[in-house]
């Protein structure tokens, strides 16, 4: 089965695709017609788009197509016209699809994502053009003489750049690719190392964008008093088991204490046999557009570390607003590069635009993931999963059940922060009513969000890491999944034990 999923499906031709899609759409209409006309809750039928999405991705490895079709199925479900209304089901579906897409595109989250991720692409392209990444790669290559040392340097750099998961993945991935390529490290493994020091660390570090966001949610839901959200977030840090385990497991894999296994082993085998470092289709998402770096004249590490330092410092100073951070960094880079004579003003804007263009595919993937999340919210997918899980809940089992249920939910929706907004207002009062430890329950929610996005094929974490390391996002998620599942299994045991000890 692993072999089947690790290669393109050449026999999945156009006619077969159309017939399969048509059958699924007709089945969706049939199932939706079975619902009572006055039933606002689809119940178990809310799982239909999610099930289709996962099956279609594994069958075809075409993630963009899968996201569009899954969202369309969801909009078919919410567009059923009232009896004798005279409305057209098809017209309603496409109208709601259009409105949903418009709502997503007009949301602050997407606007922020386009600005921040797009401009981060510009920053990375400018750093590479100025020779900052090349100089750093040459310097660290003189220190890291082996595959293991290069990977440990990657892990350590990821630990250092903890302020934001986007910043972490994009910076570490783009800086370390050249070095790990020299040591014949499959891009899938590099992606795993980078991804495991992004969100997993951000959720256990109080000085991060995740900490700021989560603390505000805790305040808005009444668990933490106003102004004390960060203190309550800090309480959850020891119990964010998945974040700790996922990050600390990486060195164990690098040194062979945990062996390379599953599809990751196949990636190493491919490279050992003289195959490409990156799996097929990686150039589509690569922030470098699949191109090798050109050796710049007079490269300086100064042009790597100073922009990154300014990005981190300005983000922190401006109340953890990364949008302001990237803008401040671009202003500095323009002035600095003009002063140094690294490039002309025209070259600066050309390179900036090229970096922005290279981020279009990752941004499109995330927009469509948000669209799926939008329709899942309309069909009450998350609510159904949580309420179904809570039917067998006891105070001692609450952390474990919350972790498992929301991990599955996040794996399907791919929007960790969005899931936090939906789940925490449900889980916090539930824990309070049951007399369970609220801190542990909140930690289970936060850990579930990290795990789900960690192994989801189209989550922002997966997409951003894939774009930075130049690795097809399906292959990145697929090869990383066994390690994520291992960390999740260990985390589940810890939540079970903690549930008995603390309740």
Features:
25 helices; 503 residues; 3 domains
Task: Write the SSE topology.
Elements: H1 2-5, H2 14-33, H3 48-60, H4 63-78, H5 89-106, H6 108-130, H7 132-143, H8 147-160, H9 165-182, H10 187-195, H11 199-202, H12 209-220, H13 229-236, H14 241-254, H15 263-272, H16 302-317, H17 322-340, H18 345-358, H19 360-378, H20 381-390, H21 398-413, H22 416-434, H23 438-455, H24 460-469, H25 473-502
Helix pairs in contact: 2-4, 3-4, 4-5, 4-19, 5-19, 6-9, 6-17, 6-18, 6-19, 7-9, 7-16, 8-9, 9-10, 9-24, 10-24, 10-25, 12-13, 12-22, 14-25, 16-17, 19-24, 20-21, 21-22, 21-23, 21-25, 22-23, 23-25
Walkthrough of the structure:
The structure is a single chain. Helix content is 73%, strand content 0%. The chain is mainly α and 503 residues long. It has three domains: 101 residues, no CATH class; 199 residues, no CATH class; 138 residues, no CATH class. Helix 4 packs across helix 5, helix 6 packs parallel to helix 17 and helix 10 packs parallel to helix 25. The radius of gyration is 23 Å and the shape is globular. The relative contact order is 0.13. The N terminus is likely disordered.
- Mean pLDDT level: 83
Helix percent band: over 70%
- Helices and strands: which structural class? mainly alpha
Please give the number of β-strands. 0
Q: What is the H/E order? A: HHHHHHHHHHHHHHHHHHHHHHHHH
Q: Stretches where pLDDT falls below 50 for ≥5 residues?
A: 1-11
Distance between the termini: 42 Å
Beta-strand percent range: under 5%
**Helix count, per DSSP?**
25
Q: How would the global form be characterised?
A: globular
How many structural domains can be distinguished in the coordinates? 3
- Specify Rg, calculated over alpha carbons: 23 Å
User: Biggest β-sheet, characterized?
Assistant: none
């Amino acid at each position: 089965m692993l072999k089947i999923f690790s290669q393109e499906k050449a026999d999945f031709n156009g006619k077969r695709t159309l017939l399969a899609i048509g059958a699924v759409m007709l089945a969706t209409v049939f199932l939706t017609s079975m619902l009572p006309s006055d039933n606002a809750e689809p119940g178990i039928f809310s799982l239909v788009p999610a099930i289709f999405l996962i099956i279609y991705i594994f069958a075809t490895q075409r993630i963009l197509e899968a996201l569009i079709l899954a969202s369309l199925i969801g909009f078919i479900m919410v567009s059923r016209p009232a009896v004798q209304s005279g409305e057209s089901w098809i017209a309603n579906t496409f109208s709601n699809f259009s409105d949903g897409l418009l709502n997503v595109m007009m949301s602050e989250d997407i606007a922020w994502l386009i600005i921040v991720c797009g401009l981060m692409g510009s920053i990375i392209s400018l750093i590479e053009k100025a020779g900052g990444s090349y100089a750093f790669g040459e310097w660290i290559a003189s220190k890291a003489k082996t595959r293991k040392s290069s990977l440990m340097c990657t892990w350590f750099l990821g630990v250092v750049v903890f302020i934001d998961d986007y910043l972490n993945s994009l910076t570490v991935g783009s800086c370390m690719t050249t070095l790990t390529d020299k040591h014949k490290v499959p891009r899938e493994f590099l992606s795993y190392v980078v991804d495991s020091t992004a969100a997993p660390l951000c959720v256990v570090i109080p000085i991060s964008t995740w900490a700021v966001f989560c603390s505000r949610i805790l305040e808005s839901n009444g668990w933490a008093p106003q102004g004390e959200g960060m203190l309550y977030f800090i309480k959850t840090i020891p119990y964010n088991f998945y974040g700790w385990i996922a990050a600390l497991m990486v060195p164990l894999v690098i040194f062979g204490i945990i062996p390379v296994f599953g599809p990751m082993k196949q990636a190493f085998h491919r490279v050992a046999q003289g195959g490409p470092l990156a799996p097929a289709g990686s150039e589509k998402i690569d922030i470098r557009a699949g191109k090798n770096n050109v050796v710049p004249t007079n490269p300086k590490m100064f042009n790597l570390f100073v922009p990154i330092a300014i990005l981190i410092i300005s983000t922190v100073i401006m109340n953890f607003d990364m949008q302001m951070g990237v803008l401040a960094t671009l202003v500095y880079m323009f002035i600095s590069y003009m002063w140094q004579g690294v490039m002309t003003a025209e070259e600066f804007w050309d390179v900036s635009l090229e970096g922005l263009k290279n981020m279009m595919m990752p941004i499109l993937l995330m927009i469509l993931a948000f669209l799926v999340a939008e329709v899942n919210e309309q069909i009450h997918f998350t609510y159904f999963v949580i309420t179904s899980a809570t039917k067998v809940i006891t105070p001692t089992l609450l952390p474990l059940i919350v972790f498992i249920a929301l991990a599955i939910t996040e794996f399907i929706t791919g929007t960790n922060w969005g899931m936090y907004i939906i789940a925490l207002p449900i889980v916090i009062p539930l824990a309070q009513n049951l007399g369970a430890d609220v801190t542990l329950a909140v930690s289970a929610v936060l850990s579930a969000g990290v795990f789900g996005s960690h192994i989801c094929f189209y989550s922002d974490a997966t997409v951003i890491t894939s774009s930075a390391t130049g690795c097809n996002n399906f292959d990145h998620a697929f090869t990383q999944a066994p390690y994520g599942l291992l960390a999740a299994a260990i985390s589940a045991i810890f939540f079970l034990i903690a549930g008995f000890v603390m309740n």
